[in-house]
Amino acid sequence: MRIHRLSVVVVAILLSEFHLRLAAADPPAGPTTAPSAADRRVIRMVQCSQHLKQIGDAIVLYSLDHKGEFPPDLGTLATAGHDALDVSYFVCPAAGALPKGWRTMAKPDQATWINAHTDYIYLGSKMSTITATSDVPLAYEKDDDHDGRGMHVLFGDGRVEFLSMKDVHKLLGPKVGAERLTTRIYPWPDRQRRFH
Q1: Which helix (H) or strand (E) holds 59?
Q2: pLDDT, tens only, 92-121
Q3: Residue 4 CB: number of other CB atoms within 10 A?
Q4: Cα(49)–Cα(53) distance, rounded to whole angstroms?
């Protein structure tokens, strides 16, 4: 009986010491500092990478229902039944903006908007699960999305990599990113920005 009580006391002491250490490690309950500009840039880059990853996953799901063939354009992924992606996945958080009322747009209108205004360039329209090998790029983002430092590229195996412009030119050719930037006047006034 005495040994049991001693064990309980030791366990209680250890637990209280553990809780004290845990409480000391918790962040303060008060207000925290806002993320810096560099933090926000990193967050947007991660979100952009995740958007391309989701597009890659949607391409694979589409191909399963279409004998291995990839969709003819990105807009098709917004109308692909239960596997349809939100319009928000086709806009880079670092550069683009969604049109007002996009959640209530009809699916065909969303597809049209995506094909005209997406921040991603799709290369997979004539590809399939057989031709899209791990070294084949399926999609990439416009070069002005991250201030010309580089761009995310989606490959045939589903991975997304952020490549420097030098590496992008090696992979996709020197004309990628070399186009003159202009301003497009969109029918949606809230979507004014630079693009190729």
Answers
A1: helix 37-65
A2: 887 767 888 888 888 899 899 999 988 899
A3: 8
A4: 6
> CA distances (Å), 97 to each of 35, 70, 114, in order?
21, 26, 12
Using CA atoms, how far apart are residues 18 and 114, in angstroms rounded to an integer?
A: 53
Over the stretch 133-190, which tens digit does the pLDDT of each residue have? 889 999 998 866 667 788 899 999 999 999 988 898 889 887 665 443 333 333 434 4
Short-list 182, 186, 185, CA closest to 194:
182
Instruction: Please answer whether residues 55 and 154 qualify as being in contact, where contact means their C-beta atoms are separated by less than 8 angstroms.
Output: yes
First to last CA, the chain: 81
The Cα 27–Cα 12 span in angstroms is: 25
| Whole-angstrom distance, CA of residue 51 vs CA of residue 124 | 16
Distance CA(102)–CA(129), nearest Å, equals: 31
Beta strands in 29-156 (DSSP E): 120-122, 137-141, 150-155
Structure-token pair, residue 181: 């930037």
* CA gap 162, 182 in Å, rounded: 24
At 1, the pLDDT band (50, 70, 90 cuts) reads: very low
